[in-house]
Amino acid sequence: MKIAFLGIGNMGAAMARNLVKGSHEVRAWNRTQARVKEVPGAIAAATPADAARGADLAFTMLADDAAVEAVVFGNDGILNALPKGAIHVSASTISVDLSRRMQKAHEGRGQQYVSAPVFGRPAAADAGQLFVVAAGADDAVKKCEPLFATFGQKTFVMGNDPVSANVVKLAGNFLIATIIESLGEAVALTRKYDVEPQAFIDFLTSSLFAAPIFKIYGGLVASQQFEPAGFKLRLGLKDIRLALAAGEAAQVPLPIADLMRANAVRAVNNGMGDLDWSALSKIAAENAGLK
Amino acid sequence: MKIAFLGIGNMGAAMARNLVKGSHEVRAWNRTQARVKEVPGAIAAATPADAARGADLAFTMLADDAAVEAVVFGNDGILNALPKGAIHVSASTISVDLSRRMQKAHEGRGQQYVSAPVFGRPAAADAGQLFVVAAGADDAVKKCEPLFATFGQKTFVMGNDPVSANVVKLAGNFLIATIIESLGEAVALTRKYDVEPQAFIDFLTSSLFAAPIFKIYGGLVASQQFEPAGFKLRLGLKDIRLALAAGEAAQVPLPIADLMRANAVRAVNNGMGDLDWSALSKIAAENAGLK
Amino acid sequence: MKIAFLGIGNMGAAMARNLVKGSHEVRAWNRTQARVKEVPGAIAAATPADAARGADLAFTMLADDAAVEAVVFGNDGILNALPKGAIHVSASTISVDLSRRMQKAHEGRGQQYVSAPVFGRPAAADAGQLFVVAAGADDAVKKCEPLFATFGQKTFVMGNDPVSANVVKLAGNFLIATIIESLGEAVALTRKYDVEPQAFIDFLTSSLFAAPIFKIYGGLVASQQFEPAGFKLRLGLKDIRLALAAGEAAQVPLPIADLMRANAVRAVNNGMGDLDWSALSKIAAENAGLK
Amino acid sequence: MKIAFLGIGNMGAAMARNLVKGSHEVRAWNRTQARVKEVPGAIAAATPADAARGADLAFTMLADDAAVEAVVFGNDGILNALPKGAIHVSASTISVDLSRRMQKAHEGRGQQYVSAPVFGRPAAADAGQLFVVAAGADDAVKKCEPLFATFGQKTFVMGNDPVSANVVKLAGNFLIATIIESLGEAVALTRKYDVEPQAFIDFLTSSLFAAPIFKIYGGLVASQQFEPAGFKLRLGLKDIRLALAAGEAAQVPLPIADLMRANAVRAVNNGMGDLDWSALSKIAAENAGLK
Lengths: 291, 291, 291, 291
Fold this sequence. Notes:
By secondary structure, the first copy, chain A, is an alpha/beta fold. The first copy, chain A, contains 13 helices and nine strands.
């Protein structure tokens, strides 16, 4: 297939490389064009519109709502450039509001819109081990699945409304943040009773909490190694805010998210915004007077 | 070894049966004595003291602080009956305050005290698959380990201060409660965006959240099957309170625990105390106006 | 002065009547034009622009951001119609974001913008007893003060940045909501200990809490008379959201506001949106299992 | 009347002086006996029991539950020393649990027990301007009222159950703490929008919030003058805990109290325990990154 790929960051580059390996023709665009070289075999496009013209399908994998909005709706955006019948696959973590607006705009142009955010880090993307959460019209999702298989180990289809996939992504990140926050509280408590943090985490991850997510974040919380950041706290705050916005739009109170937003804002205000978001656990330690 | 076993409920019976199978001489006591029959091979004792006299070691596996206090410090309690040098293994989920008092009382009698709460349900106890978290003097813990192995798959030693093991148990239950609460919020959010709850849970437990605890509680939250209760909400509330009390005693704020206590009290006040504690997730659904 | 008055609701009508009494020429516009009759002596305008053309000053007193945005920026809005040098006085409770955008837009037209939200109910407006919180350029505020004096008992000037006045209004409403919420919790607690609610409120308002706000809301909370609504809970929710949005924009966590938003959303979801916002206190009573 | 007065701190001394002025015979006891000299005309007693023997009535005005418990139930406590028919008036801020236990113990001795906590600072006590909240048997309260009138400007009777008065005291302190917390949040918000704190407080206390409590604490929060402490933060934390304990015993969630306890523990852990409890407002400022 002819694929436009918008957004060659760490994640996007790995995903695009796998699409190239899968024998697709990839035209890639990135704000700082030099990064396109990280996808050997891809053709560099001067603008999103250049990438999109004549494509069967366009992926967007960008930092936030503002970036996606510019690439889709801006001058030289893909909305005007994609052919009728083409599919826009949005893989970024974005607001439900923007996702809904894109769905309607593409519909209005006779195009299709699939929401397909991914879970996993760049290394997983390279290894084809991402988890893909997809939602959209059946036929469109079906066309995408072989593409998802180039960078993902499994695709979970959440129905026909693209927004559903965005909310699952936001809910997933909310659950990860909750694990960080609750481990922060639990480690602060046990430390005060002379339990060695790593011993506590080892117990958890060898018993009922034997999930990758507890191993990754438990290790970070126990060791307090918050640099270099795998995912920056200020981006984590952005995602908590997106979850809260999704809750507001649907009248769903999310008290744990409220609590974490307050802690994350406090952390950013006090110079922790560029640490890994597992540094949220420092707040509980500070509250307890530790260190 | 000669073992006194105090408390033949669902968990205690399974643990005691495994001790009998391990060729130990078990004298068992329970408030309603009939239940001792559930441990074939055990000798029924008329009082805790009768069970404890002459024993090498006494297990307590009881419902709450009040029950443990009565069995240890009461008339006919084990404190006065256990021989010098004997070990009291407290496997119940109790307060750090009571644990500390028992430690001191046993020390004063030349006895030893090991805290060894367990994680797992009765079926796991029967199958010898519990996780045991132990703390106490090295030699005492060492003597207990073969006994723990009769009902547990693994023992995690948390140091020499018995209270450490109690706090790890409370922190573990706090983390489980947090998973219920956060799944409740996440499912309320995704339901409002037309995501089918079981599909959401399947995604979680097939990807980053592939831990037993997410499978068990995710299934309950998705299906809203809160009866029969595996662990009653009112007992869950008790454990949240114990975690908060441990936090208070050590000056550790636990804001998620505060939030869950408020929700659990509300749930009990509104007739949900005898449901499974995964019913805490109903609060988030009610807040969202679901059902 | 020639004054345009946009928004003849209960509050706007009372304010505009006082301006007429103060010998000003008032051209009034309201979405449902019939209500303009409630301001004898005012000239009905067909559109906001009609009211604004040739005016020295325009007041907006409307329900929410959307209404203000339409009246200012819409076709037939006042932005294009007001003469150079004219002043727009925004008295509505609106977001800091919209206030900032209006300030810039008026500046761009050589007009002035004063933010002047008011505290008090329609009866107070009629009696000239409102409290006015104003911010904007010194000369502009000075010109407005005699007008404010027609409907207000006192004007508090908060500096030159119009947004300051909006935030003071939002902070004031946040404090009122907090009084409702905290009285709800306190009355739930004391009721459970057999204290008669009105006796408790009488004590408070005869001693340290002898402020109008405690008398008004204490009486409502004690009597549980939530209809007719003086100020609807769904509007209170809107204002809590505006305070939170102001906090978000300036990185200020407001945990009590988070808590009240969750309670207010729950209340609206459960059919209480049209009750007086003192009905927020029912949430605490429900949590306690009362009634 | 013959009056025993137990606890000659700043408050107790002022109250006892007024009883002496009212021509009552006062036998006073204090842990550090020297302070009894601050009550000219009072007779120093060597023990609580010495003070209580032969008395018609005994006041206790002590720091906390432990002090009251010792003075009432201890060796040389008043319980054994007071004559039949005498009244114990407990004016301290104590737990409902202790109040209930004292009521029962005095009943068992044919004595009466009146709960009568007071609101106000030492200067108000000296000036006879305290507010007294009383509960107990009608005849006992009636006998006390002339005594209350020597140091109080008004007595509010809350019924026959002494515990009611304790809960009203705890609820009152909870409301004061909430005012501090909410002013802290509101001032943090408005400061970020360039509103001068004192101007904001002046507005509040000249309009809807014209209560003594807003003037006192608003001034402290605006000026950030937290020393010398009128009422120490660590004592404020104690009272928040007592309110929460009263809530727990009656199954009443108090989410604002939970939030304030967490903030107060954090404050004490970070060296603010001896500041005035209005320093709770610093937490909101720190969260916002102010200073």
